[in-house]
Amino acid sequence: MTCLPASPDVEALYLEPGGLVERARPGTILIDLSSVLPSTPRKIEPRAKARGVEFLEAPVSGGVSGARAATLAVMVGGDPQVLERARPVLRAIGPNIFGVGPVGAGNTVKAINNMMACVNSLAMMEGLVLGRKAGLDPMTIYEVVKASSGGSKALERIPTAIVPRNFAPGFKVFLMNKDLETFNTIAKELHVPVSFSNVAQRYQQAAMAAGLADQDTSVALTIIEKLAALD
Fold first, then answer.
1. I need a labelling partner for 125 at 20 to 30 A (CA). Which of 20, 24, 176, 188 fits?
2. Chosen domain end from 103, 138, 158
3. Which of 103, 123, 152 delimits the end of a domain?
4. Which of 110, 133, 146, 188 is catalytic?
């Protein structure tokens, strides 16, 4: 199993001379956990099959804490029969293993998930900043929204990251920017008009321009605060 930052890294490791595809023994199952463009696993699979090697893409969600606790969600693209052979190994990193379709589908689902998570988080931050500027207590907002229709996983960042100003990396800004770029690339290829993902990516890019690329994505709060002139 491999997990690398971006498509060029994965393609180099798997496809260059002396890479994993060339060196793997026939019958081996290669599994890549990276979050990359769907075109990357689609390049790898036929090259692997030509050598009698199986390949699955299996991007994950759950962050550093999920990896440590072995509670990751795994989005597998590839042959369902190969997935069943690999399932016992994948269970070591998480109980929620989803076969989502052919190779390429896994990274498409991952891009959708991360776009939705990012947009949700930014909506939470904008609401919180407005509330603070209106003189409201952030924890009051948290308790009310948690019990109401606006509740979400993103809301749980208020007591754990937003209020204590804890921006230690769980999922880094530059990685979210990459995943939003993947989502937007897929949207362009499929001629799907999107807007929220573009706005979300602009916030990540603003954070990167401010030198915050290696901080947790919740640090986008500071960008929104500056735009709102909130001390």
1. 188
2. 103
3. 103
4. 110
